[in-house]
């Protein structure tokens, strides 16, 4: 049986699938050619990340397809309900990338509080001629320890962020309409651990009391953070979005940054991907990454092997 990993798959994933008797194709097929390729090559499983879309047209055109797999959490590039109606298995790997996304959140937080994003732009240009000026410009950094981190969306990734925040000595508050409370287990290298119970609060409380806010929600119909929400926030709040583009109103974010309400923003995702607005890309108070939350070797290994296990279980053991 053939598996088309159209957006790539880790070597460990390929190995596990081949061991299970599958042929893995890693050719990158253009979106408009996907259905034709699946039918021509008798592909039974298509694996995607965020680039390839598996919509109704592909599902209808490919009667031999049995499984659609998404390497990662969000499945907004797949018509999930329709595929399942048609008898296809739709699988994803919700647990595999949590740690990687959480670490990127803190990469943006550390970058923001110490102005690394701006210093890294300006040091090559002025480091030799204006060293003291730059030193003065970046001299008022702040510590994360002791500050309050507000987490919007308290699923697996939100809870992974909470663990890291607690380990740093931050206070954690969270909002989630589906999660009332969670016990966060913070593990240490020597086998010791602590459990911390966190009861979720209202979104309004998160906006009012957080020194930093990070979002971990799926794609939404409207904005989670818009002009009104920025007005509720503390002065000099830091905002990180490593979830989905479109959950923050970017126009309102630019206004809040320019007015000094928001100290910095860290963005891994954008309203207009893959062509983010130039005002976002050029803003001196925004730390930027190109949607790489799950893009670590460890996460991709976990994603590949987890997809392989699910595919083998569905197609070989039934």
UniProtKB/TrEMBL annotation:
One Pfam family named in its UniProt record: 2-Hacid_dh_C
Stored InterPro entries: D-iso_2-hydroxyacid_DH_PdxB, D-isomer_2_OHA_DH_cat_dom, D-isomer_DH_NAD-bd, NAD(P)-bd_dom_sf
UniProt keyword annotations, A-Z: NAD, Oxidoreductase
Domain D-isomer specific 2-hydroxyacid dehydrogenase catalytic: residue ranges: 6-317
CDD domains: PGDH_2
The D-isomer specific 2-hydroxyacid dehydrogenase NAD-binding domain, residue ranges: 107-293
Keyword Oxidoreductase annotated: yes
Protein family (similarity comment): Belongs to the D-isomer specific 2-hydroxyacid dehydrogenase family.
Protein name: D-2-hydroxyacid dehydrogenase
Organism: Flavobacterium helocola
Organism placement in taxonomy: Bacteria, Pseudomonadati, Bacteroidota, Flavobacteriia, Flavobacteriales
């Amino acid at each position: 049986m053939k598996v088309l990993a159209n957006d790539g798959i880790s070597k460990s994933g390929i190995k596990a699938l081949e061991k299970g008797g599958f042929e893995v194709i890693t050719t990158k097929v253009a979106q408009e050619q996907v259905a034709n390729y699946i039918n021509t090559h008798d592909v039974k499983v298509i694996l995607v990340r965020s680039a390839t879309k598996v919509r109704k047209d592909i599902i209808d055109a490919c009667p031999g397809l049995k499984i659609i797999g998404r390497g990662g959490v969000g499945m907004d590039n797949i018509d999930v309900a329709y595929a399942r109606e048609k008898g296809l298995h739709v699988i994803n790997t919700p647990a595999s990338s949590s740690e990687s996304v959480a670490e990127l959140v803190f990469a943006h937080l550390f970058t923001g509080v110490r102005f690394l994003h701006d210093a890294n732009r300006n040091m090559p240009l002025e480091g030799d001629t204006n060293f003291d000026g730059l030193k003065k410009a970046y001299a008022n950094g702040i510590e994360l320890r002791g500050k309050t981190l507000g987490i919007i969306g308290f699923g697996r990734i939100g809870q992974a962020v909470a663990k890291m925040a607690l380990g740093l000595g931050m206070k954690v508050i969270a909002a989630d309409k589906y999660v009332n409370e969670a016990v966060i287990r913070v593990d240490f290298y020597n086998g010791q651990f602590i459990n911390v119970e966190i009861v979720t609060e209202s979104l309004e409380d998160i906006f009012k009391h957080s020194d930093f806010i990070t979002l971990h929600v799926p794609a939404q119909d409207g904005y989670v953070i818009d002009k009104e929400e920025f007005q509720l926030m503390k002065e000099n709040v830091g905002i990180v979005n490593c979830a989905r583009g479109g959950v923050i109103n970017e126009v309102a974010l630019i206004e809040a940054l320019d007015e000094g309400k928001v100290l910095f923003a860290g963005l891994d995702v954008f309203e207009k991907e893959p062509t983010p607005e130039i005002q976002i890309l050029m803003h001196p108070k925004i730390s930027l990454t190109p949607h790489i939350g799950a893009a670590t070797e460890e996460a991709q290994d976990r994603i590949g092997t987890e997809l392989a296990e699910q595919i083998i279980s569905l197609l070989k053991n039934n």
